[in-house]
Specification:
Order of helices and strands: HEEEEHHHEHHEEEEEEEEHEHEHHHEHH
Strand content: 15-25%
Structural class: alpha+beta
Number of helices: 13
Number of strands: 16
Mean pLDDT: 81
Shape: flat
Distance between the termini: 35 Å
Strand order of the largest sheet: 1-2-8-9-10-11-12
Length: 443
């Protein structure tokens, strides 16, 4: 996260591009004139973004189950099992679903908050939020784009592939968003879509010095938003990729060795080969396989199988150690562990989820920051299209968790407090009385 400081090169001194933070791309405001970045600045930011594409592509490949072990080659004739284990998908989906156990609840001053909630429901923001959360877990950042539907004129939001879009920030400590850039997924250099606070600009790279074509929008803020996964924007499984590779390799070699056991060699001592009786239609080896008997010439001759004795117990100990390290260093609980048995108390489960819950809280802080920037664009649309004023900084966002609850323990606690709390409070917290609709309370 903290990079060493080196003197700026002549190119860096001549061009106001800055990438001090590995998580984001920053730019000096001198490269933005009238809210529109210069074509040279856009091209430089795109080149900086593309330098990170190999890392993002590898993360996407592992999430899809295409691990490095699939490219493994062995000598001809040797078994070459190539197994992949879906740890990346497991880690990303568990963290994303835990982060958004319930739809995001937005509260704020009325009537603006109600109008904003209606827009988000119309835009299917709940499903988009889940896509963003998965991208945040896989790539270390998610990207959303607000746009106005041509037919209905209503605002909508969609999730973009982080390999095709990014946001550029100023180089101050506030890191205010300057503009967003969409790059073609096929890597073509025909055009870039640049989203500023006022318009959408199309930059043709074939004429990098031309003024971009602009189409105004009604959001009043940069409609493209990033949702970082932390200060370093690492994917949830990025730091354990080497452990996942080791787990794949161990399981593949384990199966290869097992397959080679069935190809054991028959060692004949004192025998110059196996010969059959005259006129026998079966070869000696075929008769050996069918009759399971072998005639040796004298008492000094012997036959034995040459096999490799594998210590399965030691191999399984190593496998379990790798699996535990993957869960440990990714801070993702192993729900198949016996410690998550059905008779465990609620407090015991919370202790098991302590580190995982802390990591999700860190993700939540950055996710809420992205939600607020997206709400800022929707508030701008409400102000320009409906004349309704709503400050995005006055909104509160609540993300609820879904944890298993020990109902018997909960009922016993309520019984002990029957003489202390009023009946209405006891009834509200009773496991047999559902919470009021829209309460959004934690489990």
């Amino acid at each position: 996260m903290f990079a060493p400081c080196y003197p700026a090169s002549k190119r860096e001194q001549a061009f106001p591009y800055n990438r001090r933070m590995s998580a984001i791309i920053t730019l000096n405001r001198s490269a933005v004139s009238g809210g529109v970045p210069t074509p040279a600045a856009i091209n430089e930011c795109v080149r900086a973004f593309r330098r990170d594409l190999p890392r993002l592509s590898r993360l996407a490949r592992y999430f899809d189950g295409r691990h490095d072990i699939l490219a493994r080659a062995r000598l001809a004739g040797l078994p070459n099992n190539r197994l992949t284990h879906a740890y990346p998908r497991y880690i990303a989906q568990v963290s994303a679903s835990y982060l958004l156990g319930e739809p995001v609840r937005v509260d704020g001053p009325e009537p603006g908050a109600s109008a904003l909630r209606e827009l988000l429901i119309q835009a299917s923001a709940d499903s988009v939020d889940l896509e963003i959360a998965i991208a945040q877990a896989v790539f270390g950042r998610g990207v959303s784009l607000c746009y106005e539907d041509d037919a209905s004129g209503a605002p909508f939001v969609c999730a973009l592939d982080p390999r095709t879009a990014f946001v550029v920030y100023d180089d101050t400590v506030a890191h205010e968003p300057l503009f967003g850039v969409y790059v073609h997924a096929d890597g073509s250099d025909n055009a870039f879509l640049v989203y500023t606070a006022d318009a959408v600009h199309t930059l043709r790279s074939s004429s990098p010095r031309s003024i971009p074509t602009a189409v105004p929008h009604a959001f009043g803020a940069v409609p493209m938003v990033e949702y970082l996964n932390g200060p370093d924007a690492h994917g949830d499984f990025e730091d354990v990729l080497s452990l996942i590779d080791a787990y794949d390799l161990l399981q593949c070699d384990r199966l290869n060795d097992r397959q080679q056991f069935s190809d054991a060699l028959l060692v004949l001592t004192g025998v110059m080969g196996v010969t059959g009786a005259p006129g026998d239609t079966f070869s000696p080896l075929e008769r050996l396989r069918s009759e399971k008997t072998l005639s040796l010439p004298d008492s000094d001759a012997k036959a034995e199988w040459l096999v490799k004795n594998a210590n399965e117990k030691d191999i399984d100990v190593l496998r379990l150690a790798l699996a535990q390290d993957i869960h440990k260093f990714s801070l993702t609980p192993d729900f198949s562990d016996e410690s998550f048995s059905g008779n465990a108390s609620g407090i015991a489960i919370k202790y098991k989820l302590f580190n995982f819950d802390n990591r999700i809280k860190l993700k939540e802080r950055y996710f809420v920051t992205g939600l607020r920037e997206r709400a800022r664009a929707f508030c701008g649309w409400l102000a320009s299209r409906r004349g309704l004023s709503l400050d995005a900084d006055s909104l509160s966002f609540r993300l609820s968790r879904r944890l298993p609850v020990n109902e018997a323990e909960r009922a016993a606690s309520l019984k002990d407090m029957a003489d202390i709390l009023p009946a209405e409070t006891l009834r509200y917290h009773s496991p047999f009385s559902p919470a009021p609709a829209g309460s959004g309370g934690d489990a």
